[in-house]
Design a protein that fits this description.
Elements: E1 12-16, E2 19-27, E3 31-34, H1 46-54, E4 58-62, H2 81-95, E5 101-105, H3 109-121, E6 126-131, H4 135-139
Helix pairs in contact: 2-3
Length: about 150
């Protein structure tokens, strides 16, 4: 377990489509899939993983190719929405889940669409979708956004 950057979670890796993808798999119980958006990574969720685990959930928090602790191919032509979707679908298959998950992600155009596509194509895994209002919801550690004075 590492404590870098207030990130005290066990790193896991899987190779999907020739790319080494990083993910966190913390806790036990119903799965909460925390999918980051463009320009962020699993670190975004560092303040809400522990409370979710304490509440009885299992947190699955992947880093997309090119983000966080996943491989970062230099050839820009390898990055596409379809490839991100295929890799997340492959990662879900590789960890061999056979139960419903909750899906949670920030409303980011690129990766939010990828998460929605995976959810639509893998309805056997997705029970409920939840969107956070933005990064502010994560910074207060509650997943709850209260803009301005709160």
């Amino acid at each position: 377990m590492t404590t870098r950057f207030e990130y005290p979670f066990k790193d896991n890796y899987a190779t999907v489509d020739g790319v080494r993808l990083h993910y966190l798999d913390e806790g036990h119980g119903p799965v909460v899939w925390l999918m980051h958006g463009n320009t962020t990574w699993s670190y975004l969720y560092r303040k809400i993983i522990t409370p979710l685990v304490k509440a009885g959930y299992r947190c699955f928090v992947p880093d997309l190719m090119g983000f966080g602790l996943s491989d970062k191919p230099e050839d820009e032509s390898v990055y596409s929405l379809k490839r991100h979707v295929d890799q997340m679908t492959g990662l879900i298959d590789q960890v061999n889940w056979r139960w419903s998950l909750f899906l949670s992600f920030p409303p980011d155009l690129h990766n939010g669409m990828a998460a929605e596509f995976v959810a639509q194509s893998r309805q056997d895994f997705i029970r409920e979708g939840v969107r956070f209002a933005g990064a502010e919801a994560l910074e207060n550690g509650s997943g709850d956004y209260r803009g301005g004075d709160g």
